[in-house]
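Q: Hi! First time doing this. I have a protein sequence and I read that you can turn it into a structure. Is that right? Here it is:
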Amino acid sequence: MSASHKDILLEKLRGGQPMLRREQLKLAWLLGLPAMLAQLGTIVMEYIDAGMVGRLGSEQAASIGLVATSTWIFGGFCFANSSGFSVQVSQLIGSRNYAKAREVMRKGFVSVLVFSLVLAFLGLLISPFLPHWLGGDAAICADASAYFAIFCAFLPVMQIAVTSCSMLQASGNMKIPSFVEVAACILDIALNYLFIYVLGMGVKGAALGTGLATMITHAFALWYLFIVCPELNILQDSSSWIPDKESLKAAFGISGPMWLQNIISRGAYVMSTVIVAPLGTIAIAANSFAITAESFCYMPGYGLSDAATSLVGQSIGAKRKDLARQFAYITTGLAAAMMTAAGVLMYIFAPQMMGVLTNDPEVIALGVKVLRIEAFAETLYAVSIIGYGSCVGAGDTMVPMILNFASMWVVRIGLAFILTPKLGLAGYWIAMCIELNVRGLIFFLRIRGKRWMKKDFAE
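A: Yes, that's right. Below is the predicted 3D structure, encoded as structure tokens:
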């Protein structure tokens, strides 16, 4: 379907016109497909980093795997910061209050940039010590520290990139973020090859290449948002860029629970690193590569989650909560079907997926084993991803944070402490598989209820 068809359907949503079920499905797909491609670009960049570094040896791969969960925490703060303002913008666009949406966007950019600078400074401070805190072997700590430090130095760039794309997605534009992510992927390949192999920078080169690729390509997204985007380009008016109490309070109401959610969920991943690290370099590398390989399975879920957040937000802004619920159901069904199929393919082609990332036979064998365990979690994992994205679009972040806390720390970490010492890395992945299924059921029940659609920032 053409972009103009998407715009027609979005206008029907914002204008309160009736929408047939097939039109709802078309709109979800029109927004979801580019968002999935954007997710694919991000995942391919991770795959490229892991694969290129994996060719250097298992120690280099383990050095990135050791701090990977910590980079997720810091990156997660960037996504949470962005959502605090993009959810407001989505609902304001749904109510056709474009001037207010642009005002919130301006103030949002200043707010998130300041926060990311503080975050980058803190990350650089702890980078020399982090690998040791995580229980890493002395042989990999130096590379792990360098990788994490370079990652943190680029956090302000990541924050602006994430915010630019999330604002475009809030307006219903999924194509530009998709194009930018694909371009970043292509540039990442070239820069990683240059820094890792030609200049011999190894692990440090992987971090530098990805950071520069993000900065160069996402400058286009920022330009398009500020100059071209019909709803949000800043040439239309000249409202203040200075954050005020009202915008910050509304943003914190969304981002605050998401910060806690990030600490809780990513903190559980850090704890998993602590649990896995004593198993040795082979287990750390296999765990890291398997997580990267599995990301292709949940790519459709996170892409459709971006679409769900935008559609739910605009529906609520347009005072159409019935439509918001329908979009949550539609995107959940699409994601569950696609991730189930991806899980089947992952089970079948697990050896090939691991083989792309490393040539170490021990790492491949262990990675294949855990990927085939995880294949049985993909269906309900999809439900949890879309459920959370739908709740974010409605500004409902506190209860989902509590649900994630219970699921991650009670079910996953509790079972991991029991199973990992007995079954090794497979024990941790069994615990994760069980937890993801439990989380999916919890979010299914949440979306079935009514309390998640109470906030309306467009009022």
